[in-house]
Design brief:
121 residues; alpha+beta; VC0802-like; 7 strands
């Protein structure tokens, strides 16, 4: 399975409204529930209306389109990283899954996954 590096420094934050989010940028995730409005974005695109933020994330995605019938892909990746004491922040889209790790663990995470047979792009 191929994992593709995401070339951005990322921030995970809570925002007060979507109006402050730059919808023209090429990379962001928005999650809204009855309790919060969360955003993952390039650090330089973090809006001013954040109420909490955590900088220093890097990410990679599972390359290709994952069929909904596939089971355990994210679980296996997160399990490998957890066994090496690397925490993750996962985001899923219709096509695939994205895994974020803190910047200080990024290269080590990719090295570990490569040693487990994943191809890093």
């Amino acid at each position: 399975m191929e994992l593709k590096r995401i070339p951005y420094n990322l921030t995970v934050c809570k925002v007060t409204a979507v109006s402050g989010i730059n919808m023209d940028t090429d990379f962001f995730f928005i999650g809204k529930t009855d309790e919060e409005l969360s955003l993952v974005c390039k650090t330089e695109d973090t809006p001013r209306n954040t109420t909490e933020r955590d900088d220093g994330w890097r990410g990679f995605r599972i390359q290709g389109v994952l069929d909904f019938s596939l089971i355990g892909i994210l679980s296996k990746l997160s399990g490998i990283l957890a066994a090496h004491k690397i925490g993750i922040f996962a985001v899923s889209t219709y096509n695939t899954d994205y895994i974020l790790v803190k910047e200080e663990n990024y290269e080590r995470a990719l090295t570990i996954l490569a040693s487990e047979g994943y191809t890093i792009m």
